[in-house]
């Protein structure tokens, strides 16, 4: 029997990353192994996640908003953040979603578009895990078409100091049931250059009168994630609650592109974990008096999965370099999200079969990753929407309309 190699060793994947970035990822992997990995199957079955407990530990590690500068944030490279997302999603997509929503949506929105007062008030607490944030964009009837949102923000009075009053409902909001603050996107009565209502963002503490959150239960996918519906009923906010630098859809879409970058890296962790689990199982499970790893069809599945995993990891590494260089574009992120999620989902599905009947239990991760990735394929831009974004970039023709 020849010496075995891990999927990363076979192609020398680690050589494309800096040693400091890899060392940081190892620290994350070790912490997750000590605090989360053994319990994640139970969290998934129970449909829960101890967000507040985990956020404090993740904050102590410096993972929350780690790629942002100042205000208690670690200020790491984008690639280091991406590798952390890989380790988080190797445990569960719900865990990576929790961190991504906190850092790349709620915190990034305040960091990129907020006032200095908003940054000083919220970012240190969110970075430390002492406060939880969420991002209110999606609605029941406005998912892929956020411009169709019905949530409204109206001035009560005249002048720049007049209060805002918000009404509407946001749906599928990760972290919402345990959040201290929600970034709400709403249509205002300010006309844009085409005469349409201008979309603005607001920093809304969840203890504000008129804010209520209902937890969403009975999910089949992404069960180790806390998700909610946020209702805003006459929520009165001071003028200072508005994000001053965000005007129009560019604000929320910029935040989504930031979060999608984490997904590009994260799903490679789910693929790696499914692959290593299948390899380990195939080496010990015997049929016909030999390990199933010795059968040609099993080796074909493992070889194909390793090829696909290597490709999406290299895609993520390349996009990490582009982001660190400041040259990455939303279309490139769309290509990465479209390709990597679909490929990782197929890897997890194919490798589930290697485990036979045991593969449908919570004892092994491939089925859980496969089910979770069905959600990741849909959120923060569906697979089809990203296909059209890439198609538009290639042809110059907008197929959305």
TrEMBL record:
| Tagged with keyword S-adenosyl-L-methionine | no
- What positions does the domain Acyl-CoA dehydrogenase/oxidase C-terminal occupy? 247-394
Q: Which InterPro entries match?
A: Acyl-CoA_DH_CS, Acyl-CoA_Oxase/DH_mid-dom, Acyl-CoA_Oxase/DH_mid-dom_sf, AcylCo_DH-like_C, AcylCo_DH/oxidase_C, AcylCoA_DH/ox_N, AcylCoA_DH/ox_N_sf, AcylCoA_DH/oxidase_NM_dom_sf
Q: Tell me the domain of life.
A: Bacteria
The record's Pfam families line, in alphabetical order, gives: Acyl-CoA_dh_1 (PF00441), Acyl-CoA_dh_M (PF02770), Acyl-CoA_dh_N (PF02771)
Question: Start and end of every Acyl-CoA oxidase/dehydrogenase middle domain?
Answer: 134-235
Domain Acyl-CoA dehydrogenase/oxidase N-terminal span(s) in chain numbering:
25-130
Q: What is its EC number?
A: 1.3.8.6
Question: Which SUPFAM superfamilies is this protein grouped with?
Answer: Acyl-CoA dehydrogenase C-terminal domain-like, Acyl-CoA dehydrogenase NM domain-like
Q: Which GO terms describe its biological process?
A: fatty acid beta-oxidation using acyl-CoA dehydrogenase; fatty-acyl-CoA biosynthetic process
Q: Which reaction does it catalyse?
A: glutaryl-CoA + oxidized [electron-transfer flavoprotein] + 2 H(+) = (2E)-butenoyl-CoA + reduced [electron-transfer flavoprotein] + CO2
Enzyme class, spelled out: oxidoreductase
Pathway info: Amino-acid metabolism; lysine degradation; Amino-acid metabolism; tryptophan metabolism
Q: Name one GO molecular function term.
A: glutaryl-CoA dehydrogenase activity
Q: Which cofactor does it need?
A: FAD
Keyword annotations of the record = FAD, Flavoprotein, Oxidoreductase, Transit peptide
What family, per the record?
Belongs to the acyl-CoA dehydrogenase family.
* Name assigned to this protein: glutaryl-CoA dehydrogenase (ETF)
Organism this protein belongs to: Spelaeicoccus albus
């Amino acid at each position: 029997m020849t010496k075995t190699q891990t999927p990363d060793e076979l192609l020398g994947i680690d050589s494309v990353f800096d040693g400091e970035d890899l060392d940081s990822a190892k620290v994350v992997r070790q912490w997750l192994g000590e605090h989360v990995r053994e319990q994640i199957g139970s969290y998934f079955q129970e449909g829960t996640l101890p967000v507040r407990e985990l956020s404090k530990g993740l904050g102590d590690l410096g993972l929350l908003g780690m790629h942002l500068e100042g205000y208690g944030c670690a200020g790491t490279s984008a690639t280091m953040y991406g590798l952390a997302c890989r380790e988080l999603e190797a445990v569960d997509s719900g865990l990576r979603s929790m961190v991504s929503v906190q850092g790349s949506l709620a915190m990034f929105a305040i960091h990129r578009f907020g006032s200095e007062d908003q940054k000083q008030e919220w970012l240190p607490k969110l970075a430390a895990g002492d406060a939880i944030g969420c991002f209110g964009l999606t609605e029941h009837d406005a998912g892929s078409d956020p411009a169709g949102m019905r949530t409204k923000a109206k001035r009560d009075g005249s002048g720049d100091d007049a209060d805002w009053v918000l009404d509407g409902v946001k749906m599928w909001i990760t972290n919402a049931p345990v959040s201290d603050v929600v970034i709400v996107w709403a249509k205002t009565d300010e006309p844009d250059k085409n005469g349409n209502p201008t979309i603005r963002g607001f920093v809304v503490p969840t203890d504000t009168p008129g804010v209520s959150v209902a937890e969403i239960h009975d999910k089949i996918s992404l069960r180790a994630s806390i998700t909610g519906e946020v209702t805003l009923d006459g929520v009165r906010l001071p003028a200072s609650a508005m994000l001053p630098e965000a005007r129009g859809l560019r604000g929320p879409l910029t935040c989504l592109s930031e979060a999608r970058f984490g997904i590009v890296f994260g799903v490679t962790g789910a693929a790696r974990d499914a692959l290593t689990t299948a390899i380990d199982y195939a080496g010990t499970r015997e049929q016909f008096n030999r390990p199933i790893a010795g059968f040609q069809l099993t080796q074909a599945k493992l070889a194909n999965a390793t090829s696909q995993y290597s490709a999406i990891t290299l895609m993520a590494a390349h996009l990490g370099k582009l982001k660190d260089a400041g040259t990455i574009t939303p279309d490139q992120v769309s290509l990465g999200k479209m390709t990597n999620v679909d490929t990782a989902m197929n890897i997890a599905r194919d490798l589930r079969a290697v485990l036979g009947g045991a593969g449908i239990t919570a004892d092994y991760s491939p089925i859980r990753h496969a089910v979770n990735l069905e959600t990741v394929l849909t959120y923060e831009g569906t697979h089809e929407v990203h296909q059209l974004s890439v198609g538009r970039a290639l042809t110059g023709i907008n197929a959305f309309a």
